[in-house]
Fold:
Amino acid sequence: MKVIDWKLELENGVYDKSVGIKILKLAGDAGFSTYLTEVAPGVAINGHYHRHGDEHYHIVSGRGEMRLVDVATGAARTHAVAEQSSFVVPANTQHQLSNTGAAPLVLMFSCPASHLADDRHFL
Structure:
């Protein structure tokens, strides 16, 4: 069993310039993996969507907003999220998470590995 110190490992995480955050893989394989990230106060992840598979989110600390846009219809909605919030973003839904608080927004997300590679699309 490998025990991971989130804070230490995230400081050394890989910066993903296309979405603007550091990402740390915690566990999983190509089919489905769990990652940890931190969004600084006032920062928004670049909006994007995936054609295949859902993304599961779990807010560890902080608060923010998740903007969702249905790629097919253009229907948009925004949800407030905070510590202990969990939600699922379905495939073909553009999503953009913003930190609206004064502290870092720390979250875990789980998805197919392809969401961080070839199945990430920007409008």
